[in-house]
Amino acid sequence: MSCAEFVNSESIVDVGTDHAKLPIWLIKNNIIKYAYACDINKFSLEKSRKNIQKYDLDKKIKIFYSDGLSNVSENMAKFIVIAGLGGETIKNILKNCTWSEKNKKNKKFILQPTKYDHVLRDFLLKNNFEIIQEKIVNHNKYNYTTILCEFLGKNYKNYKNYKFDKLYAFLGKIPANKTSIEYIKKNIRYLEKFLFGAKINKNTKYQIEIESIILDLKNFIKICEKNLD
Questions:
Q1: Phi, psi at residue 163, to the nearest 5°?
Q2: pLDDT by residue (tens digit) across 106-131?
Q3: In a 10 Å sphere around its CB, with 0-12 CB exposed, 13-18 middle and 19+ buried, how is residue 204 labelled?
Q4: Dihedral sign of CA atoms 214, 168, 111, 40 in order
Q5: In this predicted model, what pLDDT tens digit does every residue of 156-188 receive, in sequence order?
Q6: CA dist., res. 7 & res. 3, Å (int)
Q7: Which of 174, 182, 198, 228 could form an S-S bond across to 206 if both were Cys, CB 3.0 to 4.6 Å?
Q8: Domain hosting residue 206, numbered range
Q9: What is the C-alpha to C-alpha distance for residues 187 and 116, in angstroms, rounded to an integer?
């Protein structure tokens, strides 16, 4: 429930709610007063309905069908949660959002990609979203990041440094602590696969680029380790 730690509002929209576990938990623990839960999967929506009825929360959680944010009203809630989906999928949901810039600015987005985190962070950086905070969590021996971010609009002056952009995709704003070490090691293993391919194909430019990012990630691990002392 790492997503819950970032919620600071009376209500949320839970996109891809699956079984509506998050909104149910938030209401049962008096963190929010009501919620909107949507999903593209009709089986998941039916399961959500049963879970909501089980806890007698029919009047506090509204469920509905939506492909991403397509059926989510701009004024439903200030906090939008998109968790348990791949980074590429979350990126496309945000990319296809048709809300006005004004309404996007009034929202906080809580994102939890299950994979391809770097794809999502790269999109956020290049599309005027600012990451406010991240938290690395371990669940069933897997490490995930939970991202709290907001859309700052066309006037947002993000970084345009090539080296920063490349590293940002793998680091974002994750904290330098013990949990982050395993997460970064996972990213290094991911990059090493591409490094191997670059060497086989004798793509020297790409090889140097990947080696540089891996070195920076290893240096970040050292910072994390120092913080453990």
A1: -65, -40
A2: 899 999 999 999 999 999 998 999 99
A3: exposed
A4: negative
A5: 666 666 677 889 999 999 999 988 999 999 999
A6: 7
A7: 198
A8: 178-226
A9: 10
For residues 211 and 117, state if they share a domain.
Answer: no
Cα gap 50→133, rounded to integer Å: 34
CA distances from 89 to 12, 70, 169, 177 (A): 20, 14, 16, 28
Check: CB of residue 217 under 8 Å from CB of residue 223.
no
Select from 173, 181, 168, 172 the least CA-distant residue to 221.
181
**How far, in Å, are 23, 46, 83, 167 from residue 64 at the CA level?**
14, 10, 17, 38
Quick check: is 45 in a domain? yes
Instruction: Name residue, tokens 């879970």.
Output: 51
| The pair of three-digit structure tokens given for residue 126, joined into one six-digit string | 């290049």
Task: Give a yes or no: residue 166 inside a domain.
Answer: no
Q: Give dist(CA 82, CA 94) in Å, integer.
A: 10
Partners of residue 136 on adjacent β-strands: 145
**Sheet with strand 79-85: strands edge to edge:** 61-65, 34-39, 11-15, 79-85, 108-113, 142-151, 129-139
Q: What are the C-alpha distances in Å from 134 to residues 4, 21, 27, 88, 163?
A: 13, 21, 23, 18, 21
Domain count, the chain: 2
What is the DSSP code string of 129-164?
EEEEEEEEEEETTEEEEEEEEEE--TT------HHH
Tokens of 229: 């002392």
Burial class (CB in 10 A: 0-12, 13-18, 19+), 88: middle
